Amino acid sequence: MSSATMSFARVTLATTLATIATISAPAAQARSAAEIAAQGRHALHQLEAREPRSRFYANHAVAVLVFPSIFKAGLLVGGESGNGVLFVNGRAEGFYNLSGGTFGFQAGAEKFSYALFFMNNSALRYLHKSGGFAAGTGPSIAVINKGIGAEANSTTIVKDVYAMPFNESGLMADLTLQGTKISVIHPH
After folding, report:
1. CA 176, CA 143: separation in Å to the nearest integer?
2. What local confidence, expressed as pLDDT, does residue 10 receive?
3. Closest CA to 74 of 27, 30, 14, 114
4. How much is the mean pLDDT over the chain?
């Protein structure tokens, strides 16, 4: 067997195992509400320390939904999952799971965090009323990627929710919310 074939087989095996681990991650992530809230608060502080624009969004948001650890992996078929906390006026007001699946050209695994800044009461009401939502339904969402030079100010806030990925580690290129569902959870 050639070295290229062996390398491909190793990558395929590793990615398949990572995908299986990601799909089983919700059970492994079953943490207490206090732990999720503490990790969410810590992740939000990290984001605000590293990304100045996030402070602007946090200061103007009516609520912030923070997912401190999302695990994503895939090899043609992929999955992602992570638990998070909704902060309203700095207090933990609810807990959510982000999960999704994808199909297409993809290979890799990664861990990252997400912060969703709810910019108006209408978007927050939709989250509460619906018990969550699937990306692409409900409030309008804009993903803010690093390196985008646009300055955030009160005249540029036109979306209901701004999503900001951060703390990325691993090898997978796609950090979108496509195919993602956010659902209420009730940790102990």
Report:
1. 7
2. 55
3. 14
4. 80
* Per-residue model confidence as pLDDT tens digits over 32-69: 999 999 999 999 999 999 998 899 999 999 999 999 99
Task: Report the length, in residues, of the chain.
Answer: 188
State the helix-helix crossing angle for 52-60 and 33-50, rounded to 10 degrees. 120
Q: How far apart are CA 59 and CA 108, in angstroms?
A: 35
Task: Please report, for the chain, the start and end positions of each structural domain, with discontinuous segments joined by +.
Answer: 3-185
How many distinct helices (H) and strands (E) make up the chain?
5, 6
56's enclosing H/E stretch is helix 52-60
Whether the model clears a pTM of 0.90, i.e. scores above it, the answer is: no
Positive or negative torsion for Cα 150, 154, 158, 160:
positive
